[in-house]
DNA sequence: GCCGTTGCTGTAAACGCTTACACGCAAGTG
DNA sequence: CACTTGCGTGTAAGCGTTTACAGCAACGGC
């Protein structure tokens, strides 16, 4: 089943069929109707691979993330895919598993499949791989990985905003002993969050009151860090965490120690993953809209692909505090 | 950058380059080495679209699911993709959003992209669409949707097993007033679970003690159903739910009513989504291994593609109770 | 009546690969 | 020595599209 058979049935040339499909040039309405009918009757779908081969455009986009199993990502993937499908593009997903080697594999697959562009949200973005993409003129959008290249756009996430709102919130609830459970320090984004916490303390003249424990952005690390905090002579009255998984771990550790949230300790997460409002109590956290992130990334990528190299290739996504039940005044 | 340039650099014909890449026929080791070096030097990646066009195999697989945002799916997707990537296959994902129309779109995209096979795990599988796939000779694997066709395999999930274990468990803890919160009754898989509950009661001579409320496999429906159960004159001492989201909703409703789990009511979920062990208390639930499901589906699909039409095209995945802290003896 | 336009359609050459077939050559066979 | 055989390689056709170019009819202006 190919364009030739359609042409034969509609009694036109293959060129006319192609033109009808792509409505690239004017085809007489009567002819087009005949072609369309033939297509209908034969249930013909054009072969995308042949199209790609000659046109150079695959109508496929790559999306590289760390791990679809991490609850941060599914919404991002969904929004991105929705955008793509709406515009007739396909998305192929690469899971790096936090592993630079697999990241390299992802990039390779993207290149082999001749994707029209790649969006990357992962911390394993080795500069060499980025080069690989730009060298092949593949437009690339980085979400929160900081490096902008020639053919690429960069989407920053305004972590500080949300942390500041959280600090303000805790402050207005009279908390003064506020701890922070950080993420892995090799992640720039984790450092940014910690720094926002420190600057929040500093601006209130409380620099000497900082309490920082290191987590790993996973539940286990959050629990462990919280246990350390609970051993402190003056334990914190409130804790901000670098992400929600950390907060969930911390919550478990607090309850396990026989304390309550928010009565004994207020707790704030980060990301607003879907389970954040299902914890007991529902977690006060900082929303980072994956939808907004995906929509922005997609738009940026599309602009890059169409070479609308507009004035800015830099975007910013805000974060905001959402109050639920894990914080309370003292 | 194409095979021709590689051929020129290695001073061989394009055929030899192709043969080296695919090691399909014998190439003299020395020649192959020269070719490989040229590939290396030029950083050549073969164009998959051209390959597909001539070979008819796209090395792409389709995976159609309801919604990647539903916590049941990410692990399934991940395991399936891992399998695929390991074997040099790409996966394209279709989200139906529980919507038959979008399901049709997914199928269409799969056909257009000429996937080598499709795995489907979604309840919107319209027979007409299935026909569309089999008509085009696209091997198809259905997970838990019940319909087997010509070019397809079927993977059943043994829901009854897990439910029976759960009943047995509750029974041994002296529970006799056991309720069940069911899923949407248009889903065969939901009916199967309910029926297993009923048969569990019956085999213990407790048919007259059945308490069934209908949920929707979402949190909200679970909460609502639980509220109804709590209003009963003799409220249940234990509740089994059709899936974990339902259980989480039920848990919220129980706590909200001022009761405790498991002290006042024992609760059992189904699926073992990643958050099931993070609830307070950690949820006793029934494991349905997504990894096993994905691995089986992939193997079945591969067999179908290779036309290893062996003795069986039917597979079964077991389910088992995993005890955590949401159940207790009375 | 001639010529330049305009509008539609057809012809055929790519796109980058795989593979059937052919070919040359060295080794084995009678 | 002529022969088959088999291995390694090259030639070229073809996969299903898109698209540059050409062709052709109808039309209007002169």
Features:
homodimer, 330 residues, alpha/beta, 434 Repressor (Amino-terminal Domain), Rossmann fold, 3 domains, DNA-binding
3D structure, described in words:
Two copies of one chain form a homodimer. Chain A contains twelve helices and twelve strands. The longest helix of chain A is centred in the C-terminal third of the chain and has 16 residues. Chains A and B meet through helix 4, helix 5, strand 2, helix 6 and helix 11 of A and helix 4, helix 5, strand 2, helix 6 and helix 11 of B.
Mean pLDDT rating of chain A:
92
Radius of gyration of chain A: 25 Å
Instruction: Kindly report the spatial arrangement of strands forming the biggest sheet of chain A.
Output: 2-1-3-4-5-11
The number of helical segments of chain A is 12
- How big a fraction of the residues of chain A is strand? 15-25%
Supply the number of structural domains of chain A: 3
Please trace the helix and strand order of chain A, writing H or E for each element: HHHHEHEHEHEEHEHEHEHEEHEE
Give the proportion of residues in helices of chain A.
40-55%
Helix/strand structural class of chain A: alpha/beta
Net shape of chain A: elongated
CATH topology heading of the largest domain in chain A: Rossmann fold
Q: How far apart are the first and last residues' alpha carbons of chain A, in Å?
A: 73 Å
The chain pair forming the largest interface, with residue counts per chain, is:
A-B, 42 and 42 residues
Largest sheet of chain A: 6 strands, parallel
Report low-confidence residues of chain A grouped into runs of 5 or more.
Answer: none
CATH class identity of the largest domain in chain A: Alpha Beta
CATH architecture label name of the largest domain in chain A: 3-Layer(aba) Sandwich
Oligomer: homodimer
- Say how many strands of chain A there are: 12
The CATH superfamily of the largest domain in chain A is identified as: Response regulator
